[in-house]
From TrEMBL:
Pfam families: DUF2891 (PF11199). This is DUF2891 domain-containing protein.
Length: 337
């Protein structure tokens, strides 16, 4: 499987630096209480105002933090440190957190943006270059933690679409942050909710992808269960969830998505689907035995999916403002990517 190279890391860091502070075009999810709430993105969100939308900006920062951890000698390292110094301050984090104060905004960016914010915070914890910014981001990350903790008990049903609303993806990203604070009970809350929602799922049909999906709803669910179950329990659950993988079924999971128009922001999501499937398969294969019957077939389709979309990370802003994150996800290994 292709591994992330230093040259790719340089390219991706330059792409991210070019969009995390680019305020326009902008797709705000501005929940206005009255006319006084109308303001430019950078005044409402002094850290995460670029990259077309809030969540893409958040994971653009995660991408930069991740790349500096993996490649401390990046030529862009000084620019990345300067970016964090300018924007990731306690004051700005408090402003970002305050946006969630009105009850009408408690669902802003739930769960995708929440999960990426917690993933960013976890990445900054003990980071060899940017570790000091973990504390600076704490007012916002702690607010998101509280929102997430309050939401899980009232979430009766999971959202299974392969877009930002997907419940399994949100919980999976949040697990690394939860592990940093075991006393909160957040990890246990995620495990219990995952099992309540997905334990009994059998013979998944994998009717995917939808026309604007960037996640595989079936594989993301399985990736979450790979994290919350023991290896033996997961192997048994997965055998029942996708029982015909060794025969190449469901065929949809082994077929890269076709992206007909990369200037269309929704259709461009399908490049993300190809990349996120590779990432999800890695999470799934990690706890399974090496002689797992479908391993070779899965590894082959992972290469096909990478080949289908890796050449299209840059070129049109509709994909360029976010796809590098998913490329790095796809080329990471192990469950704690």
């Amino acid at each position: 499987m292709t591994m992330l190279s230093h040259a790719q890391a340089e390219q991706f860091s330059k792409i991210a630096l070019g969009h995390v502070t680019r305020p326009f075009p902008n797709l705000p999810q501005l929940i206005m209480r009255d006319a006084t709430d109308l303001a430019l993105p950078q005044s409402i969100h002094p850290i995460f105002y670029g990259s077309l939308d809030w969540h893409s900006c958040v994971h653009g920062y995660w991408l930069l933090a991740r790349l500096t951890r993996l490649f401390p000698g990046l030529a862009t390292r000084n620019d990345i440190e300067a970016l964090f110094t300018r924007h990731v301050t306690v004051e700005n984090s408090m402003i970002e957190a305050a946006y969630f104060d009105p009850p009408i905004r408690r669902g802003f960016e739930r769960p995708y943006g929440w999960a990426w914010l917690l993933k960013l915070s976890a990445e900054l914890h003990d980071h060899p270059v940017l570790g000091g910014f973990h504390a600076a981001l704490a007012p916002l990350s702690q607010r998101i933690l509280t929102l997430f903790e309050n939401f899980l008990p009232i979430a009766t049903y999971p959202v299974r679409v392969g877009t930002h609303l997907n419940s399994a993806f949100g919980m999976l990203l949040a697990l690394d942050y939860a592990a940093l604070y075991p006393a909160t009970g957040f990890t246990q809350a995620i495990r219990e909710k995952a099992r309540a929602w997905y334990d009994r799922d059998r013979a998944c049909q994998a009717w995917e992808p939808g026309g604007d999906e960037f996640l595989s709803s079936s594989l993301v669910e399985a990736a979450l269960m790979a994290r919350v179950l023991s290896p033996d329990a997961f192997a048994a659950w997965f055998a029942a969830f996708l029982p015909d993988l060794a025969a190449g079924q469901p065929e949809t999971l082994f077929t890269p998505a076709i992206v007909s128009d990369r200037s269309d922001g929704k259709i461009a999501h399908l490049d993300g689907l190809n990349l996120s499937r590779v990432w999800a398969w890695k999470q799934i294969l990690h706890p399974l035995p090496m002689d797992f019957a479908a391993r070779q077939r899965i590894e082959h389709t992972m290469k096909q999916h990478l080949d289908a979309s890796m050449a299209h990370i840059a070129g049109d802003y509709m994909g360029e403002h976010w796809l590098a994150t998913y490329a790095v996800m796809a080329m990471q290994t192990g469950p704690n990517w």
